[in-house]
Design a protein that fits this description.
alpha+beta
Length: 124
Amino acid sequence: FCQPGGWQLSKERKQPTFFVVVLTDIDSERHYCSCLTFYEAEINLQVRGGDQEIEGEEESGLIQPAEVFAPKSLVLVSRLDYPEIFRACLGLIYTVYVDSLNVSLETLIANLCSCLVPASGGSQ
């Protein structure tokens, strides 16, 4: 569900996309899946039809590693329907990851999970 258009490599970096999917379990409980998909340069390409890796050698017909981008998805699953809060959380994780900030992703996610979310309809 986090790659509805299919998993495809791209020759150009695409802008991140955000969307929400609602899954229903066997007990009719809703689960809101917030997805942030982005494209990252792929550096571990393998030669088609072989097991050897491309290591910067220029061979005709081969795509060089810096020219291919692969989709990655960050997914947050919750029983609460707060798409804008989840978008902000995933955007923060994305920014820390892409900008290689000096913050542990594990610590960041633990801090986000420990935040209190107000009851629906209550004050912010």
